[in-house]
Amino acid sequence: MAAADAIVAEGLEKRYGPVRALAGVTFSVRAGEVFGLLGPNGAGKSTTVRVLTTLTRPDAGRAFVAGHDVVHEPNRVRRSIGYVPQESGVDREATGRENLLLQGRIQGVPGDELRRRVDELLDLVGIADAADRVVRGYSGGMKRRLDIALGLVHRPSVLFLDEPTTGLDPEARAAMWVEVERLAEQERLTILLTTHYLEEADRLAERVAIVSRGEIVVEGPPEALKRDLRGEAVTVELGDGQGAEAAGIVDALDGATETTVDGRLLRTRVPNGAQAVPAILSALEGSGVRVESVTTHRPSLDDVYLHYTGREFAAEDVAVDGKAAP
Amino acid sequence: MVGRQLRNLMREPIWIALLLIQPMIWLLLYGQLFSRVPSLRGGAGSYIEFLLPGIVVMNAFFGGTWAGMAMVTDLDRHVVDRFLATPASRLSIVLSQVVRSGLIAFIQAIVILVVGFALGVRVHGGVAGVVVLLVAAALVSMVFSGVSHGIALLVRREATMIAASNFVGLPLMFLSSILITQRVMPHWMQELARFNPVNWGVRAARDAVVYDRNWDGVGIDLLLLVAATAVTSAFATWTFRAYQRTL
């Protein structure tokens, strides 16, 4: 373990009954880095965060946060980290200031210093005006800011942001991004954030790991991930029962790669959609395959995901929901 | 942690008002309703005098039964998870809620007592009687708060909580001498009432406040309540561990 690594996870495994939530998660985050865990709901992002924040123990594997073992030195880890849960973990019946003061006392910040720190944080996240109002009256964005401030009361060195912008409107989301960037700078924090928005990871994270079914399938700077996905995706809706035949035809075309068929939907990747579509159509129709529709689009999160896992992001979401409600 | 609980309570003026007014309504309503039936009051000076300790304990009982709802809300909003990621004692996260229930019941008991004085109720057991009443109220509330939190942590759903609270609430109330003296209850109900913590509280409070008698029995009842509080708090703590394991 390099001294400069703020978070190290080695082969983390976790099982909930028959569900394998983590199947050997390994990654490390350098001190001062903003790192993004990207994946659909149920992929294992939140479970990973719960292991690293000591809320749950891994079944196998080791993890160190700020140099402390999460299983054997949980209280040392807890003192070094700020944790901002997925949904607003604020006490809605208390004021913003009271929430912060309680959190500070739990973390053992002494009185005078705590009061100063709370004022500083209220300013930092921009809710000083609302500090003495009950949280119930806050907007979603304000609650999230307070959430983040709560995670920072005791000057942690590592901050965990579990889906910081889920449920926020686009405007509040953009404001939150600015906020997180500023925090990373001013507080010299290591930040691990989870998200299922590619653009969020792209904007905030210096490095990203894509999580799927409890494993990390790819890891690297967002630019590098996007570079791998140059080109456009083409989706063809076919007539019934011609998928296999169509896949063979399309894949044989010049420039088409990663052709997959899922029911009546055929997907492929081409360097240039506008040029490829007429060729695809004529090849398919020449072989008697009926085509219902064709669409092209630039790389999206779906494509990144598809590229690395061979599965569709949205489909995975549904599968997980189905499992959760038998 | 207890501070947080009480502060949140103070923030809800309507709830406080309800919390304080509701026992008055019971007191007046039942007081009027049953005062015409002399056999119910079991030798007390007036029915309202007989009723007062019962209302205090009933109130504590219902308060405790519903206390777990706050835990469901905290779980839903991930407040508990946030506390768990701090060095805060795992124990204090649950037990602070149980203690809160006891304190609320204690305060309510004082208020009900003051109103009782205004209505001409006399405390025959003196200061000791008052202390027993307040302590019994706090303990009964904590016993059922422990159960309620345990259930909250197991089911984690408000609807189930409401069903469970209603399921235990009324039967245990009628299986006690809250409203009527035990002697007029059917024999089998008297037998069942012996195992009802609500009834331990009522019996202790009433012996101490109304009759100034049977102080040994009062002591035993209070000890039983302390033991029951320990048991249900342990249950709540155990369910909290179970919850942690599901994380």
Please explain how this structure is put together.
The complex is a heterodimer of chains A (326) and B (247). Chain A has helices at residues 45-52, 74-80, 96-106, 111-124, 140-152, 170-186, 198-204, 222-228, 243-251, 273-286, 301-309, 313-324; strands spanning 5-16, 19-30, 34-38, 60-65, 68-69, 81-84, 158-162, 190-195, 207-212, 215-220, 232-238, 257-262, 265-270, 291-297. Chain A has 326 residues and is of the alpha/beta class. Chain A folds into two domains: 5-221, P-loop containing nucleotide triphosphate hydrolases (Rossmann fold), CATH 3.40.50.300; 227-324, Alpha-Beta Plaits, CATH 3.30.70.100. A six-stranded mixed beta sheet of chain A has the order 6-7-8-3-9-10, with helices on both faces. Chain A has a four-stranded antiparallel beta sheet with strand order 2-1-4-5, with helices on one face. A four-stranded antiparallel beta sheet of chain A has the order 12-13-11-14, covered by helices on one side. Chain A is elongated and about 80 Å long. Chain A starts with a strand and ends with a helix. Residues 317-326 of chain A have low confidence and may be disordered. Chain B is mainly α and 247 residues long. Chain B has one domain (19-168, 181-246). Chain B has eleven helices and no strands. Classes of the chains: A alpha/beta (326), B mainly alpha (247). At the A-B interface, helix 2, strand 6 and helix 3 of A face helix 1, helix 5 and helix 11 of B.
Helix-strand blueprint:
The complex is a heterodimer of chains A (326) and B (247).
Chain A: E1 5-16, E2 19-30, E3 34-38, H1 45-52, E4 60-65, E5 68-69, H2 74-80, E6 81-84, H3 96-106, H4 111-124, H5 140-152, E7 158-162, H6 170-186, E8 190-195, H7 198-204, E9 207-212, E10 215-220, H8 222-228, E11 232-238, H9 243-251, E12 257-262, E13 265-270, H10 273-286, E14 291-297, H11 301-309, H12 313-324
Helix pairs in contact in A: 3-4, 3-5, 5-6
Chain B: H1 2-10, H2 13-34, H3 47-66, H4 68-76, H5 79-84, H6 90-118, H7 126-155, H8 158-174, H9 187-193, H10 197-211, H11 215-246
Helix pairs in contact in B: 2-3, 2-6, 3-6, 3-7, 3-8, 3-10, 4-7, 6-7, 6-11, 7-8, 7-10, 7-11, 10-11
